[in-house]
Amino acid sequence: MSIAPTWSEFKTYVAEIGPGRGRPARPGQCVCCEGARVWFNGWRLVWITLRVEGQPQRPAEGLPLQRVRCARRTCGRSWTLRPPWLYPHRSLEPDVAEAAALVYLLDPAATYVSVAPAFQCSWVTVWRWVGWVAALATPGALLARVARVAPRGAVPALLPRAVPAAARARSPERVRRVLQAAHVLAALTHLHRAQPEPPPDPSALRWFLVGECRFSGVWDPACSKAWDPREPLPLRDALGL
Ligand SMILES: [Zn+2]
Predict the structure, then answer these.
(1) How many whole angstroms separate alpha carbon 108 and alpha carbon 221?
(2) Strand ranges inside 26-76, DSSP E
(3) Ligand 1 center–CA 43 separation, angstroms
């Protein structure tokens, strides 16, 4: 396992940013109205899980995130400044979700309950992660992107026809969901590997999400300007857009 690049960035962040320490750079403009005055507006504490040397770590003291607010009265939008490595979905670190989902989907002996302790989360979280991954993207659309960067790499046979988790699913709907999750992760892995320049991020899911969001420390789910409108709706739904 490689060391997640987020770990050193995380340590630098907590050393420098927080109440009584320092603030991140003030945004140059509002994410919604593009007004040029943005005020700092308090802190928000979140609890996150990071993957360090293959092991999930959950800092007990949490992570302070700076809140900011648009100075324009007619706008008044407030949002949270996140470091680029912190993905905003329910305090989820996508590389942890990716690893947990893969274990659940591909290990014939795995159950939600058996997978959860290894990732320091509840079984419900593993269950949610699998559903979340399934809704992230359309495997066919991802394979089409593989085909664009590596024309001979994208054939549907690359996607698993069956996964152990499908045999354990209790409803046809869940069978469809776990298969879709496995297809999304497989297609993302192909897309990650097909890049002409190997991505520095070893997590295919996180690499994909960061690329999709193109967020740069500023994130507001209500602001969809950074999104390609052709992106399938489930991705937006999963992110609360
Ligand atoms: Zn504004």
Answers:
(1) 37
(2) 38-46, 50-52, 55-57, 63-70
(3) 19
Q: What is the DSSP letter of 32?
A: T
- b/e for 8-36, b at 16 or more Cβ within 10 A? eebeebeeebbeeeeebeebeebbbeebe
Q: How far is the CA of 204 from the centre of ligand 1 (A)?
A: 34
Tell me how far the alpha carbon of residue 20 lies from the centroid of ligand 1, in angstroms: 27
Residue 3's pLDDT band (cuts 50, 70, 90): very low
Of 53, 64, 75, residue with least CA distance to 16: 64
- pLDDT digits 0-9 by tens, 50-96: 665 556 666 667 788 899 999 999 988 888 887 766 654 444 567 77
pLDDT in the model for residue 223: 29
**Cα 146 to middle of ligand 1, angstroms:** 38
Its pTM stands at 0.55
41 CA → ligand 1 middle, Å = 14
71 Cα–ligand 1 center, Å = 7
Give the residue among 77, 14, 60 at the shortest CA–CA distance from 218: 77
Please give the distance, rounded to the nearest whole angstrom, from the Cα atom of residue 37 to the centre of ligand 1: 8
In sequence order, the 6+-apart residues with CB closer than 8 A to the CB of 120 are 49, 56, 58
